[in-house]
């Protein structure tokens, strides 16, 4: 959200081009609408999927809190997310995965990375290895 808002402001050369409220709405309701899921998710309403996150506001970079929407748009990195609920099911609680096995996910990521690298031109693989990727 941070990058999207800043790019909009830069392109229009206007610091007020988009507000944190507009950016947050774009990321939630707008994202759902873009995927054709606006009737199912994107906002907390009766009849829609109960999808939401809980963010830890006690981290130093999350203070002071003047405007919660601005804080969420410009200060969060994703690491502050402590609880994730999708379709009413708790997927993460207090930073602990409840459904997925992180080691299995990491293993699958490594397999996909290796498969992708096998299909890349050899020069790209060598330069990525030099960069430590």
Describe the structure.
The model has no long low-confidence stretch (mean pLDDT 91). This protein is globular. Helix content is 44%, strand content 13%. It is built from 5 helices and 4 strands; from the N terminus they run ααβαβββαα. A hairpin with a 2-residue loop joins strand 2 and strand 3. The chain folds into 2 domains: 2-97, Urease, subunit C, domain 1 (Roll); 101-133, no CATH class. The protein is an alpha+beta fold and 133 residues long. It has a 4-stranded antiparallel β-sheet, with no helix packed on it.
Compact summary:
The chain has 133 residues and is of the alpha+beta class.
Name its key features:
single chain; alpha+beta; 4-stranded antiparallel sheet; globular
DSSP summary: helix tally: 5
Overall CATH class of the largest domain = Mainly Beta
Strand content: 5-15%
Question: How many E strands?
Answer: 4
CATH topology of the largest domain: the name is Urease, subunit C, domain 1
Task: Write the H/E string, N to C.
Answer: HHEHEEEHH
Q: Name the overall outline.
A: globular
Distance between the termini: 26 Å
Chain-averaged pLDDT:
91
Task: Provide the helix percentage.
Answer: 40-55%
Largest sheet: 4 strands, antiparallel
Radius of gyration: 19 Å
Which structural class do the helices and strands define? Answer: alpha+beta
Strand order of the largest sheet: 1-2-3-4
CATH architecture of the largest domain: Roll
- What's the number of structural domains? 2
Ranges with pLDDT <50 over ≥5 residues? none
């Amino acid at each position: 959200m941070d990058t999207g808002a800043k790019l909009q402001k830069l392109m229009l050369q206007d610091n007020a081009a988009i507000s944190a409220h507009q950016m947050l709405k774009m990321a939630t309701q707008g994202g759902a609408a873009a995927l054709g899921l606006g009737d199912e998710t994107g906002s907390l309403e009766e009849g829609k999927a109960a999808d939401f996150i809980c963010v830890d506001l006690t981290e130093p970079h999350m203070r002071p809190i003047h405007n919660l929407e601005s804080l969420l748009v410009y200060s969060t990195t994703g690491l502050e997310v402590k609880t994730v609920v999708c379709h009413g099911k708790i997927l993460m609680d207090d930073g602990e995965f409840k459904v997925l096995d992180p080691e299995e996910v990491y293993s699958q990521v490594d397999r996909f990375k290796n498969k992708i690298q096998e299909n890349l031109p050899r020069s790209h693989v060598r330069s990525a290895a030099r960069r430590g990727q």
